[in-house]
Amino acid sequence: MKQTLLLILFLLCMPALHSQNDTISIARSETQKSLIRENNTSLVTIFPVPVRQNNFTIRTEKEMTLVKVTNMIGQDIFRAQYKNPVPSTKVLLKKPTRGMYLVTISFVDGTRVVRKIMIENPE
To answer: What percentage of the chain exceeds 90 in pLDDT?
Structure first.
């Protein structure tokens, strides 16, 4: 009797669990497509790499509305928002320390790109 009830309960729960897995996989695939589309939509050039002074240049195919530089612990060390979007800009940093930084670039169409840069001490 117990085995029959457990079997019936198991058979009733299986379709519900299967549909949840389908929903999760659909959500994951849509997110992955969005990330791929976001990262491949524009060409971003940052130079010089590695950065040896307190400045570097960013050039893109699309117009930028925001450039943000953060250190690896999440602190903003530079932020520039453009009322008139620009395809290229020079970033001037105040006394940057040596290390890895993330450059976040937002575009007019709402997409954004994140690139890593290395800042070294001048030789």
So the answer is: 59
